[in-house]
């Protein structure tokens, strides 16, 4: 019963956020047009827009008449009615953005910070400074934090982040205790998947996948306009798909996970073992070798692309989700992974699901920060309004 209530409330908030997102993208629209474009009933739109008007997130423009119909009152978004801050934690820096209600970035920053050893004090100090800097313009109403690791969005506990060396870290609770605005913490790929739902793929589709290629491999899953989290928030660990029981040891302790075969460090290691020189550190070296046409590297990347494509085809077959967006630092490898990925995905998908749509977009890591901010927007206007007296 309690869960059902919460779900209904979240759903209502999401509808309001979708109305805000639509008006942010399309400009002022009448209620009937909003209902039509979002596939909602007239009464539902009236109810939600009434609340958004009362909260100051929308304003009514003068009525317009066309033909013999009733005058139409366009509703306009007030994007600066609330700003939210989103940060993405990385090993050697913090990327941050401030976004308006329309999901547009109004400010961004990048700080060289190694926060792994003292996450709470360093984040609190940084975030308080950013909140304070905006006190006299448009105040920050909430903060989203995107973490590279398995994270429970409900409790804000980082269950496991190998790259940061964290295990069962109650980051959400510790930040909420020390910051004057609501804080939501989630896995970085799921944060970006939320941004896709509100302002990207979700505009056209109710179901899609987001494949994150970075230090790890993750898969964001959206079904029926809901970002899937799993019972304890740990869904989406695509990199730990067991592929080869005799394969190399994975960071999770198992053998032959997808990540241990086709993740970034695995690819660099394979290139090194193949005798490729001048690889340097990580991704840039690998991209450089591929661009030089190093045959061993091209073969390694083609094989990894095919493996990723086969695994994604398996998920497409299971979930019947036909649209996949590829994001993450590793997208720079796409020219070398992509052809074999697409061929393997096409070959592995069963007939009724043929030709899954695969999109690769240019990507910067502030996208994860924007995703973090969108966690707040997805919770809806009530969450932001609840704390609006804080400035
Ligand atoms: Zn693993």
From TrEMBL:
<dbReference type="Pfam" id="PF13412">
    <property type="entry name" value="HTH_24"/>
</dbReference>
<dbReference type="InterPro" id="IPR049874">
    <property type="entry name" value="ROK_cs"/>
</dbReference>
<comment type="similarity">
    <text>Belongs to the ROK (NagC/XylR) family.</text>
</comment>
<dbReference type="Pfam" id="PF00480">
    <property type="entry name" value="ROK"/>
</dbReference>
<dbReference type="InterPro" id="IPR011991">
    <property type="entry name" value="ArsR-like_HTH"/>
</dbReference>
<protein>
    <submittedName>
        <fullName>ROK family transcriptional regulator</fullName>
    </submittedName>
</protein>
<dbReference type="InterPro" id="IPR036388">
    <property type="entry name" value="WH-like_DNA-bd_sf"/>
</dbReference>
<dbReference type="InterPro" id="IPR000600">
    <property type="entry name" value="ROK"/>
</dbReference>
<dbReference type="InterPro" id="IPR043129">
    <property type="entry name" value="ATPase_NBD"/>
</dbReference>
<dbReference type="InterPro" id="IPR036390">
    <property type="entry name" value="WH_DNA-bd_sf"/>
</dbReference>
